Amino acid sequence: MNDPENKKINKTEAIKLYSSRAIAGATFLGGPLAAGYMIGENFKAIKKPIERRNSLIIGVFSTIILFTVIFMVEENIIEKIPSQLIPLIYTGIILVIVEWKQGKILKSHEESGNPFFSGWKAAGIGFISLLIICIGILGYVFFGTNNEVDIKYDAELSVFQKNEDETLVFYDHINTETNYSLIKELESKTIPKWKENIEIINKINKFQDLPIELIQQNEILLKYSKLRLEAFELFKKAIEEDTDIYSIQLERIHKEIDEQLAKLN
Q1: Where are the alpha helices (DSSP H) in 46-74?
Q2: How many domains does the chain have?
Q3: Is pLDDT above 60 for 46?
């Protein structure tokens, strides 16, 4: 026969809750967004609507803040961080919050033999949360960064690339054209276009709110452009003097050019 007093103490007998372990697993997979939803559902079950709303809001904003910080950190630093470290950190924080806010009621719920939602359902929530985050990141990448600075940068860089394509054909002409034609090509097109490319990089370096990765790319492109200009000016000098004494110097310059191109890749 059931003890009426024990029946009264078992306040969560008729409801299901998400356990700490289920919340932790879903959080590791789907981030703070999954945690905010599941903690909120627990509050909903125990008739605490304000706490539920707050949990959802905190889950959403925590997710936004987390990925904003990740995007702000330089890529070379992110690459050095073990892939599981960040999820382990925010999952640990969530577990502390769950224990603080719902630890007693979850423990009482378990001791009373009351039901919990399955781990599979929790995993599903984690997966859905992960999917939402991925869609958000893709949306940011494809639409959020399409601002005025990016448009101006891409326009200038397209001119840079056009100049590059038009001048590198000089290497195909070295063994097929006369010295006179090569000098004319260098004077009228090749050298001026690389001077223009240097001006383009200096110009876009003055754009306001230029992302750090583009600033770093510009540094490489500027050095690359100066090396190209130096090489073509040396070609012109060698052809005019009809000598190969600059071959070692040209080899050194082209080696440095290859190093800068490797950085861009």
Answers
A1: 49-72
A2: 2
A3: yes
